[in-house]
Design a protein that fits this description.
mainly beta; nine-stranded mixed beta sheet; globular; three-stranded antiparallel beta sheet; 165 residues; 12 strands
Length: 165
């Protein structure tokens, strides 16, 4: 984590999967859409995203990724990388996302339950470069369930932590 105030820098959704279910064949090319605001639904996910209403009690209704990791990967692989390449929904800065695993927290009025690290997969080596999966180990982001309805938007975000799950 750096000294920047907590903020949401980018929000992405994608209407379909590029990698899930594609092992042994080519990925699809559904673009990530950069949004200024998204609607979160309790138990459902982000309206319009590929994981919206995916399955009951799904652990990855929303995913968070650290801007600091984007910058580190850019330094080691390519300064041209878009933060959308990581296929995570919310790109944050100034937050320790790993500390939110097993925690209920609130951001911009929406409550979440941090469920697990969003582990990098073998596709990262293909879309970023050889060694990217290994470089992202322990920095893959956060998967979470959405506990309350509300909107998230690009901008400052105060983090309120309720309790350990």
């Amino acid at each position: 984590m750096n000294s920047e105030s907590p903020a949401i820098k980018h929000i992405f959704i994608s209407r379909a999967h590029n990698f899930v279910g594609h092992k042994g064949r080519e990925p699809d090319e559904f673009p990530s859409e950069n949004r200024m605001e998204v609607e979160c639904r309790s138990g459902g996910g982000i309206v319009g995203d590929r994981y919206f209403n995916h399955k009951a009690d799904y652990k990855g209704q929303i995913t968070f990724f650290a801007w600091e990791t984007v910058e580190r990967i850019r330094e080691n692989f390519s300064n041209e990388l878009s933060p959308s390449v990581f296929r995570r929904n919310v790109i944050t800065t100034g937050l320790d996302l790993n500390s939110l695993v097993g925690v209920e927290f609130q951001m911009q009025g929406v409550w979440f339950a941090g469920t697990e690290e969003a582990r990098p997969c073998f596709w990262m080596d293909r879309v970023i470069g050889e060694g990217a999966k290994e470089a992202l180990e322990g920095f893959g982001g956060l998967r979470a369930r959405i506990l309350s309805d509300g909107a998230l938007k690009v901008g400052p975000c105060e983090l309120n932590v309720l309790a350990l799950l």
